[in-house]
Design a protein that fits this description.
The chain is built from eight helices and eleven strands. It folds into three domains: 104 residues, GMP Synthetase, Chain A, domain 3 (2-Layer Sandwich), CATH 3.30.300; 63 residues, no CATH class; 59 residues, SH3 type barrels (Roll), CATH 2.30.30. β8 and β9 form a beta hairpin. Strands 10-9-8-7-11 form a five-stranded antiparallel β-sheet. It has a three-stranded antiparallel β-sheet with strand order 2-1-3, with helices on one face. Strands 4-5-6 form a three-stranded mixed β-sheet, sandwiched between helices. It is an alpha+beta fold and 251 residues long. The longest helix is centred in the first third of the chain and has 28 residues. InterPro entries: PSP1-like, PSP1_C.
C-alpha cells in the first residue's frame, strides 16, 4: 500500500506497492524488471493529487483544440504522471493521423512533454472502466493484463445466442470471458454425442436433442416422443455400439 517512485517505459511514475518483496526463479521473470527509485515523499503525493484534479479540465482544453484542427480523432482521456512532467492524451481514430501541429500546440499550452497515444476500443474500455453484462467490474480493469483473441466460434462452442447484443462487451467487441471456459467446453463435447445422433439409454432408444456441458447431461427424445434428461455416462451411441459388435464378431 505504500507509494513508491518507479522508472517505467513512460518515464518516472508513482505507484502503490501491491505485493511484498519476494524471490522469484529466473525463468519466471519474462521481462526486464524496472527498479524502484525511492519511496514517495509527502510532496510527491500532493503533486500527484494536484495533477489528477487537473486532468478533466486538461481533457476539455485538448478537445477544444482538436476541434480547431479538425482532426478525425476522439480523445478519451488525459493522464499526467505524478509530477506533471509528462502528459499523455489517449485517443481513438479509424486511421493513422499526422497530429504533430496539435502536439506542438498542446506542449506550448501545458508547458510539459506531450504524448498522443492511439488506442483501440478494447483499450478504451480498460481505461474508462465500467460494469460488464454480469454486473461486475470489467475483467480488463480487474485482472486481465493482456487481451486474448476471441472468435464467434467460441460462442457457438458454448451454445450461446449469437446476437451481437448478447455476446459483446462495452467496447463493442466479443466478450473476453468467452475464452475462459472455451477449452473446457471443447474437451467435454468431444466425449458427448452430438445433437441429432441416435443413442441408447436406460429409458430406451432415442435421438439427442440437446446437451448440457456443465452438468454433463444429455436431452434425449425417445421413440415415444417423450424427452428425458440423462447423465452422459448412461448414454451410448448406437454407432459406437454397432462398431463394437462388428469388432467382436471379427474376433
Amino acid at each position: 500500500g505504500d507509494y513508491v517512485i518507479v522508472e517505467t517505459t513512460r518515464g518516472r511514475e508513482a505507484g502503490a506497492v501491491a505485493m511484498a518483496p519476494k524471490e522469484m526463479p529466473e525463468e519466471e521473470v519474462l521481462n526486464q524488471l524496472k527498479g524502484i527509485i525511492r519511496r514517495a515523499e509527502p510532496w510527491d503525493l500532493v503533486q500527484m493529487e494536484h495533477y489528477r484534479h487537473l486532468e478533466p479540465k486538461t481533457l476539455e482544453v485538448c478537445r477544444e483544440k482538436l476541434a480547431e484542427y479538425g482532426l478525425p480523432m476522439r480523445v478519451v482521456k488525459a493522464e499526467y504522471n505524478f509530477d506533471g512532467s509528462h502528459l499523455v492524451f489517449y485517443f481513438t481514430a479509424e486511421k493513422r493521423l499526422d497530429f504533430r501541429d496539435l502536439a506542438r500546440d498542446l506542449a506550448k499550452t501545458f508547458k510539459t512533454r506531450i504524448e498522443l497515444r492511439q488506442i483501440g476500443v478494447r483499450d478504451e474500455a480498460k481505461l474508462m472502466g465500467g460494469l460488464g453484462r454480469c454486473g461486475r467490474p470489467l475483467c480488463c480493469i480487474s485482472f486481465l493484463s493482456e487481451f486474448s483473441p476471441v472468435s464467434i466460434r467460441m460462442a457457438k462452442q458454448q451454445d450461446l445466442p449469437l446476437s451481437p447484443m448478447e455476446i459483446s462487451g462495452l467496447c463493442g467487441r466479443l466478450l473476453c470471458c468467452l475464452t475462459y471456459e472455451n477449452e473446457y467446453y471443447a474437451e467435454v463435447k468431444k466425449r458427448l454425442p452430438q445433437v441429432g445422433e441416435k443413442v441408447n439409454t436406460s429409458y430406451g432408444p432415442g435421438k439427442v436433442t440437446g446437451i448440457n456441458v456443465l452438468k454433463e447431461t444429455i436431452n434425449v427424445e425417445l421413440e415415444s416422443e417423450v424427452t428425458v434428461e440423462v447423465p452422459a455416462e448412461d448414454v451410448r451411441s448406437k454407432g459406437k455400439a454397432a462398431r463394437g459388435k462388428r469388432r467382436r464378431d471379427r474376433s
